[in-house]
Design brief:
The structure holds two protein chains of two kinds.
Chain A lengths: L2 H20 L10 H34 L17 H28 L22 E8 L2 E6 L4 E4 L1 E5 L4 E7 L4 E5 L3 E6 L5 E5 L5 E7 L11 E7 L1 H12 L4 E2 L1 H7 L9 E3 L1 E2 L3 H6 L10 H9 L11 E4 L2 E4 L44
Parallel strand pairs in A: 1-5, 4-10, 11-13
Antiparallel strand pairs in A: 1-2, 2-3, 3-12, 5-8, 6-7, 6-9, 9-10, 14-15
Helix pairs in contact in A: 2-3
Chain B lengths: L25 H23 L3 H9 L4 H32 L10 H35 L8 H23 L24 H29 L12 H33 L12 H34 L7 H14 L15 H29 L8 H24 L1 H7 L3 H31 L5 H27 L15 H30 L1 H4 L36 H7 L12 E4 L4 H17 L3 H19 L5 E4 L1 H18 L7
Helix pairs in contact in B: 3-4, 3-5, 3-15, 4-5, 4-6, 4-8, 4-13, 5-6, 5-18, 6-7, 6-18, 7-8, 7-9, 8-10, 8-13, 9-10, 10-11, 11-13, 11-14, 13-14, 14-15, 18-19
The chains are: A alpha+beta, B mainly alpha.
């Protein structure tokens, strides 16, 4: 390499390092345990693959250089085209790496399944019998986020506050189109879809102020569909909830329908009262009274449908046809916010126990 | 804005009115004026030089697979310019829309641009270019005189062109979809996208899809039925193998796309509820179905280029391909596995841990045969004599670029890692890394490699190298920042940003796009300069690279009938084998050759289909009915055309071959031409 080229390379390398040092790679350094474990998997899988990527790239450059046309010293064997030994290596080396990666993927996917309740506060701290979950119901509206806190009896728009070090259980749905709920500091993203409920279990381990947003394009207001995220101490959270409770606005079914109309860049808003089981109405697409809930519809369909009779109760609403019906929500499930320290046996060591030991060995030492 | 207005349809013009033309969008109007002017210049020039008759007789109505291949390539390159213009606009928007500024594009315009960019680049750039290469090369490599269904080939091309035409119309008449390139419902449903955008999307893809499917069937049958004597499956060139697998994928996957778009049309036109949750439909069904097509689609794009890399590496290393059979099996494994991975595009929709890890692991397994292929190319270079001509340079650049894209792909295949990277710019960087670094680099290698075969002269090396370096450097400058931004938690399709620390990365990325633009410019210049210098770059041997497969055994460009004598094949590198054995070209004893005759039916049918699509988009029902009846009637009428073949007379074959003999002797005086 010529000296000028080298200086150029060095300088651009330095500039890149400086730039990288200056930027905040939240995915690589998140504040929640779940996101941190997801990051760990990312790093492990990258390192595993570099085991093979780096030699391949080096070999490419080396072979290209060594066997260049005008290097008459290099051996030339125009008819050499097969070697069983080499074939074995080139198929089995990637295979071995994929076997390792596959095992890690299987375990990691199950342990970090967003539907699965947490089994630790962070790497050092296991759950205690006192640990309770904070339950938050999230609705993606056009184009803002509604957070319902059933335990506190409050709701907010575009503001998501959680106490630090307390597991959070999110139930997520959407009012009209698909969105994805994503707080990079907290945990991975999960889609918010109309008529469907997804879940996310996560925890914030640091106090911070940040932002969450929709990660799936949802129309014209998508870019501004961001919400404030704060994780605060337990006491401060209580204070915040109490102050929200002081407000005058209440989120009734009618108020919700008004709120659900498309709007962009909504300011933060708090509701001191929330209609009982509003989230279930949203999920059943029957906030508007007189609409048949989708669970009722599904139940009728499961029994074979009503045949021709079902066309009599179609009504024309402002946004398309709907079915008239009395809404019967399914029985409400009691708030299940207790976290029991989990029995990890089914996940441990593929059922293998240490020699002369009754206790199975944990493959992924979490606690 | 048409999308906000409730469509009021009149019987005569449907939804079409003067408000459909976006007079209020200065950028679009400038593009419209520019396009109309450029179009007038082209039309004027063609008329001035009295080329209409020539174009119609020799090109538009041709059933010669070579000319159809070239027309596909031209279509793909023209659409590349359109898709790239969209890319430039996005990059500029994202580089400036910071700190309260919303940039220069409003949501209505910007959202169309990123949708159009994706649709155009996949359906109307990558697909035509890949199909074009296969169309041109496959029959030559298997020693055939044309494809199995020559008329169908012409019809397929014009259907693809009609689809592209509809997308171009949408720029100036109405609007394009604002849904992202796969148009997920409910957003693409009539309730949330009442305008014509999604209808343009549906009908452009449906019409082009007919072409793609038919061309898939055509090439599949051609490879199965029309190989030269002696060419058993395991003696086919690797490119033919990859083309075979690709066309199997096309035939199996495209009907799924047709079906899912048909269901979406029913939702939009007839008020059914397949994909709206309101009446018991399910939007996730659409997502599943479209990706059951969508994932094989990416292998449809990349597999033929894997074949190209194999041909190029082997030719320019002067060596037989290492591990031919393992290459073939790797291709087949990829073909089968490509159907078992679609769910990795939506791990984040909550499918549950077992389903997610199944699809994550099957995705990783694909990297094993792909890795084996990379190693095979490596060991083809090993102990070779590598000539760094342009195709080989593109291949080396591919190997170094693609492995990074493969690695980031496997990272995304780990579901928990995907939860933080899905829909991020990391993902965007990944698929550009494999599509540009894999598909596009491969296409450029193929263009530089086979151009002398198609036109009889090589491409200019200097401008080729300028283009090469601009593309490779530009690619990395443009797509390293999105990787980093993805790790900073930035997601795709955003129109403006609040965090000022991100801006520098978008600016670097924009610089990269400028470098790529220089690369595209250099490539156009390369074509122009090569055409000007065609006499210096001329090759009369038909075998400028010391090639190994049958296409190099005939003249450049090949005669309409490809081979005066059907070659006999004894080895997978048939032409190399023939040269080794001291093959003598036969110069007499020619016979008349039966060839298919040109027909304008493809142009007429595709034109009527274009009108049908346009009428459906704008709710002009009488025109839709009329044009549909027209399509069916003309297709039936065409079946009564019995005058479909003609003989190339013996004398003409003899004359053509004698002319070739003369040129070959002239170029290599004193030598017996091979």
């Amino acid at each position: 390499m010529k000296p000028t080229l080298r200086t150029l390379a060095l300088m651009s390398g330095l500039a890149l390092t400086a730039l990288l040092a200056g930027c905040d790679m939240v995915v690589m350094d998140p504040s929640g345990d779940v996101a941190a474990r997801q990051r760990d998997l990312l790093v492990i899988s990258t390192l595993l693959m570099l085991l093979i990527i780096v030699p391949v790239m080096a070999l490419t450059v080396w072979f290209a250089f060594k066997y260049r046309h005008n290097n008459k010293q290099a051996r030339y064997e125009p008819d050499w085209h097969h070697s069983m030994r080499l074939e074995l290596v080139i198929w089995s080396a990637p295979l071995l790496i994929i076997i390792c990666l596959g095992a890690i993927t299987w375990l990691g996917t199950h342990l970090l399944d967003p539907f699965r309740k947490l089994d630790r506060l962070d790497q050092q701290r296991p759950l205690t019998t006192e640990t309770r979950e904070l339950v938050v119901n999230v609705v993606a509206l056009d184009w803002k986020w509604l957070f319902i806190y059933p335990q506190q009896g409050i709701a907010t728009v575009n503001e998501f506050v959680v106490p630090v070090d307390q597991p959070v259980s999110l139930r997520i749905t959407a009012s009209s189109v698909m969105n994805a709920f994503y707080v990079p500091e907290l945990a991975g993203m999960i889609y918010a879809m109309p008529g469907m409920q997804t879940q996310l279990h996560a925890i914030m381990n640091k106090e911070l102020t940040s932002e969450g947003f929709s990660a799936n394009y949802s129309g014209h207001g998508f870019s501004g569909m961001r919400f404030a995220v704060r994780s605060v101490s337990r006491a401060e959270f209580e204070k915040w909830a109490a102050s929200a409770k002081q407000g005058t606005e209440s989120l009734s079914r009618e108020r919700y329908l008004e709120l659900a109309k498309p709007s962009m860049r909504e300011p933060v808003r708090r509701f001191a009262q929330v209609q009982d089981r509003l989230f279930d109405y949203v999920l059943g697409d029957c906030v508007q009274s007189g609409r048949m809930c989708s669970h009722d519809m599904a139940q009728i369909d499961r029994r074979g449908g009503l045949g021709l009779a079902s066309i009599y109760n179609v009504a024309q609403g402002p946004d398309g046809p709907y079915l008239v019906g009395q809404c019967r929500l399914p029985q409400s499930t009691p708030l299940d916010d207790v976290l029991v320290p989990r029995d990890r046996t089914p996940l441990i060591g593929a059922g293998l126990s240490l020699p002369r030991s009754e206790v199975p060995t944990p493959l992924l030492a979490g606690q | 804005m048409t999308s906000d207005a409730t469509p009021v349809a009149t019987p005569l013009f449907g939804r079409l009115g003067w408000d459909a033309i976006p007079f209020h969008e200065p950028i679009v109007m400038a593009a419209l004026v520019g396009t109309v002017l450029a179009g007038l210049v082209v039309v004027g020039a063609v008329a001035r030089y009295k080329l209409w008759g020539y174009l119609w007789r020799e090109w538009f109505t041709t059933i010669d697979h070579k000319r159809i291949g070239i027309m596909y390539m031209i279509l793909g390159l023209v659409m590349l310019l359109r898709g790239f213009a969209d890319a430039v606009m996005m990059r500029v928007q994202q580089a400036i829309a910071f700190g309260g500024s919303e940039g220069y594009l409003n949501a209505h315009h910007y959202d169309q641009i990123f949708t159009a960019h994706g649709v155009i680049m996949i359906f109307f750039v990558a697909m035509p270019l890949v199909t074009g290469i296969m169309n041109y090369i496959v029959p030559l490599q298997i020693g055939a005189r044309d494809v199995s269904f020559p008329f169908l080939n012409n019809f397929s091309f014009w259907m693809t062109a009609a689809g592209a035409g509809l997308v171009m119309f949408s720029l100036f008449v109405g609007e394009f979809a604002q849904t992202g390139w796969l148009a997920y419902p409910p957003l693409s449903g009539i309730e949330h996208s009442p305008g014509v955008g999604v209808d343009y999307y549906i009908w452009a893809l449906q019409i082009a899809g007919v072409g793609t499917l038919l061309s898939g069937i055509n090439l599949l049958v051609t490879i199965i039925k029309m190989r030269a004597p002696g060419m058993t499956l395991m003696k086919m060139p690797v490119f033919v193998w990859t083309a075979l697998c690709t066309n199997v994928l096309i035939v199996a996957a495209f009907p799924v796309l047709t079906a899912v778009l048909a269901l979406l049309s029913l939702d939009r036109y007839l008020g059914t509820h397949f994909f709206t949750s309101g009446f018991g439909g399910n939007p996730m069904m659409y997502v599943n179905l479209i990706w059951i097509w969508g994932h094989p689609e990416v292998y449809i794009l990349i597999l033929p280029l894997f074949g190209v890399y194999s041909e190029v590496t082997s030719t320019f290393s002067g060596k037989k391909l290492f591990g031919y059979s393992s290459m073939v099996y790797a291709t087949i494994v990829i073909t089968v596995l490509s159907y078992l991975v679609w769910l990795h595009h939506f791990f984040t929709m909550g499918s549950g841990a077992s389903v997610n890890s199944f699809f994550g692991i099957t995705t990783m397994i694909i990297s094993i045969p792909t890795g084996a292929k990379i190693f095979n190319w490596l060991f083809t270079m090993y102990r070779g004599r590598i000539r760094f001509e342009l195709p080989m340079m593109w291949t080396i650049a591919f190997m170094l670029t693609f492995v990074i894209g493969g690695m980031t792909g496997v990272m995304l295949a780990v579901p928990p890692a995907d939860f933080v990277l899905h829909n991020s710019l990391f993902l965007v960087a990944h698929f550009h890394n494999v599509i540009i670094g894999g598909v596009l680099f491969g296409l450029f290698a193929a263009i530089n490699y086979w151009f002398p075969k198609a036109f009889g002269f090589k491409l200019d090396v200097f401008w080729g190298k300028v283009s090469f370096w601009c593309w490779v450097v530009g690619f990395w400058v443009a797509f390293t920042p999105p990787y980093i931004l993805g790790l900073m938690g930035v997601t795709r399709r955003l129109r403006y940003f609040d965090d000022p620390s991100l801006q520098i990365w978008f600016q670097i990325s924009a610089v990269g796009v400028a470098i790529i633009a220089a690369g595209i410019g250099a490539m156009l210049l390369q074509f122009y300069v090569s055409f000007r210098r065609r006499d210096q770059l001329r090759d009369h041997t038909g075998d400028p690279w010391d090639g190994r497969t049958l296409e190099w055994s005939t003249s450049s460009p090949p005669p309409a009938y490809n081979f005066a004598y059907t070659p006999l094949v004894h080895d997978s590198d048939a032409w190399w084998d023939m040269k080794q054995r001291g093959f003598q070209r036969r110069k007499e004893g020619f016979r008349a050759i039966l060839m298919p005759r040109n027909t304008g039916a493809g142009v007429v049918l595709a034109g009527l289909s274009l009108v049908f699509g346009f009428a459906m988009i704008w709710y002009i029902w009488w025109l839709a009915i009329a044009s549909f009846v027209g399509v069916v009637a003309y297709a039936v009428f065409h079946t009564f055309n019995y005058d479909r073949e003609y003989h190339v007379p013996m004398e003409e074959v003899a004359r053509t071959e004698a002319e070739r003999t003369r040129l070959m002797t002239a170029q290599t005086p004193g030598q017996e031409p091979a």
